[in-house]
Amino acid sequence: MESNTGLNTELKSLGYIGVRSPKLDDWSHLATKLLGMQQVDDSKATRAFRMDDRKQRYIITDDGADGIGFMGWEVDNPGDLNALARRLEAAGIAVLQGSRALAEQRRVTDLIVFTDPAGNRLEAFWKPEIADTPFVPGRPISGFNTGPLGMGHVVMNVANVDLLLPFYRDLLGFRISDYSLQPYKLYFFHINGRHHSFAMVETGKQTLHHFMVELGSLDDVGQGYDLAQLQDNGIAYSLGRHTNDYMTSFYMRTPSEFFIEYGWGGRVIDPNTWQPHETFDGPSFWGHERFNLPPDQRSQMRQLRLDAAARGIRAPVNCAWFEAVTGRG
Ligand SMILES: [Fe+2]
Predict the structure, then answer these.
(1) Rounded to the nearest whole angstrom, what is the distance from the C-alpha of residue 99 to the centroid of ligand 1?
(2) What spacing in Å lies between the alpha carbon of 212 and ligand 1's midpoint?
(3) CA 56, CA 133: separation in Å to the nearest integer?
(4) How many angstroms separate the alpha carbon of residue 135 from the centre of ligand 1?
(5) 256 alpha carbon to ligand 1 midpoint, in Å?
(6) CB neighbour list of residue 183: distance below 8 Å, 6 or more residues apart
(7) Are residues 318 and 242 in contact, defined by beta-carbon separation less than 8 angstroms?
(8) Residue 110's beta-bridge partner residues?
(9) Of 14, 143, 258, 312, which residue is 20 to 30 A from 70 by alpha carbon distance?
């Protein structure tokens, strides 16, 4: 049985994500025309995108590499940033104070930079800059569900979960939401009401598997699904619904190796009462057919959800209107 050690972390939410890719134009197209983000920066080597009132949430940099560049985690104030830095240093983690120039680039007041034991670059920051113009989506969507729940979630492929657990759980203070050990180790973590802001899956690789953004409306997702299907080989996982965070989503291919999960209706948990637990239902109630996998693994994943369906596994829809009208969650 896993336990959550300590209920305190300075980290409040996932603030921003940076990706390294030479395919700036392809990324601009996907981010605006499919995801519905707003492009705000179009310099020679970077593209930055808004998802809400903040000046930027998603940043692509062409620096010759390909993959995740950084994850930005938000704290409330300079005292918390300091406390986090001291705690990391006391555990032997090298912490760099972000320069003025870097803080300006990230559109935040101040930040620190450090790496996890797998070499992923993490940043922690406080007080992001707020834009003085309203968010204008790149296609007509209702908007992204961010706010206190953060930008979404990040799922990393890792070589060894056990090497990273002490760092994320015990040092950073991420709380385990749930985990499964079959067919591979998969750990989900929360730092606010979003069921998971971070997860790692032990595939043996060390890359970004996907990140998720959550939309305000199921129709935003469905209309995005239509658009993604018009792209050649655009869908990685078909529309489906996850068993642990209840997200209805599909996974699209991107100009990089990783996927983006485009979702709606994720559950909001109470971190004060949540108990971490092992799960046995597989990742999806239905759907999420994994076109990216070789046939044997694909059918293994399909069998998991057919088994869940055969046992009648289902969950309420996260909808205030439905709950008010029916009295059922
Ligand atoms: Fe996800």
Answers:
(1) 32
(2) 5
(3) 12
(4) 24
(5) 17
(6) 297, 300
(7) no
(8) 126
(9) 143
Q: What is the DSSP letter of 226?
A: H
pTM above 0.85, yes or no: yes
8 A C-beta contact, residue 278 and residue 246: no
How far apart CA 91 and CA 87 sit, in angstroms, is 6
- Tokens 């296609």 sit on residue: 139
Contacts of 329 (CB under 8 A, 6+ apart): 316, 323
Task: Please give the distance, rounded to the nearest whole angstrom, from the Cα atom of residue 76 to the centre of ligand 1.
Answer: 25
Residues of the chain by 3-state class (helix, strand, coil), percent to 5: 25, 35, 40
Walk across the sheet containing 121-128 and list its strands: 38-42, 46-50, 58-61, 13-20, 67-75, 121-128, 108-115, 96-97
- The hierarchical CATH code for the domain 13-310 is 3.10.180.10
Q: How far is the CA of 265 from the centre of ligand 1 (A)?
A: 13
User: Using one digit for the tens of pLDDT, what is the confidence trace for 77-132?
Assistant: 999 999 999 999 999 999 999 999 999 999 999 999 999 999 999 999 999 999 99
Read off the pLDDT of residues 269-279 as tens digits, 9 standing for 90 and up.
999 999 999 99
For residue 193, pLDDT over 50 is answered with yes
Question: Ligand 1 centre and the CA of 280: distance in Å?
Answer: 17
Name beta bridge partners: 159. none
Q: For residue 14, report the distance from its CA to the centre of ligand 1, in Å.
A: 14
